[in-house]
Design goal:
seven-stranded mixed β-sheet; 11 helices; binds 3,4-dihydroxyphenylalanine
Length: 339
Amino acid sequence: MNAQDVVVLKEQGLAEARQAATLAEVEAVRIKYLGRKGVLQEVMDNLKAVPAEGRRDFGRCANELKQELTVLLDERKTALAAAEKAAGQKQFDVTMPGAWRSLGTRHPVTQVIEESIRIFSMLGFTVADGPDIETEYHNFDALNTPADHPSRDTQDTFWLDNKTLLRTQTSPVQIRVMESRKPPIRIIAPGRCYRRDTTDATHSANFHQVEGLYVDRKVSMADLKGDITFFAHQMMGPNVKVRFRPHFFPFTEPSVEYDFSCHVCGGSGCRVCKNSGWIEISGAGMVNPKVFNIVGYDPEAVTGYAFGMGLERIAMIKFGIEDIRLLYDNDVRFLSQFS
Ligand code: DAH
């Protein structure tokens, strides 16, 4: 065996390595040429028999066989491993349309809450919060509600024990805010309220209100009317009319109830407005000085207005919903109409 034979063996090995089509075949070539009893070992065993003057050349060729074959086998191994991995993965068609996920919609009452926050924030109001489980003090006493007022009756209020109840209105948030902050105050408080009402097309035992409270020097009834009218136009559009009627609430003096012209029929009369052309939204008024005294404000120094709003009412006239119960059925066919 001479150096030329070794070159031939090398070329053979390289050719076989190039032809190996699987990882197993690559390994077989490696064992055949570079293994313990392989071709290379045989070549080395021959080294001693080579005449001294040819030994250098022979050794160099043996070395080249080892190195070139090792490099090529490694390359083949890497390439085949990558190809086998890719073949094992699921192929997908990038031109197929993606899986469609339908977006949910916001509940109409949530939409009205968010819109109310947006509108009143333009007037400088921030959002305040209070608990659904209230004390009798915050829900009634501090709001100057007489001990014998019919709304305290178990007919109207869900009592939890002697002193605690589910709030019947968002007005107790007024008290909590004034107890904890100094004037000026400008807050709205959206939230859930509870009353022992029998459910029908316009009543629900739990419903939502937004409370508003503005206390500062020289706040007047004109501010109240202007701000409520601004709200109505923003919420319902520029054609809605607002009217205020004298009323009584223990925590405001003077007090009003206010109505929006019916958005569904434009004021001409329909089922939603019970043919009156108007929808009662809720009550409002100038904060009663007795309430200021209770929370420790000086009624000589500040005045304020307060209002409540029935959010289901607003949602019903805004979206033309004829029955309040639809808002609580959780029927997706109904809810998805208000996207
Ligand atoms: N809390 C009253 C209700 O639920 C509504 C109300 C009336 C709120 C007058 C007010 C107000 O803030 O000033 O019927």
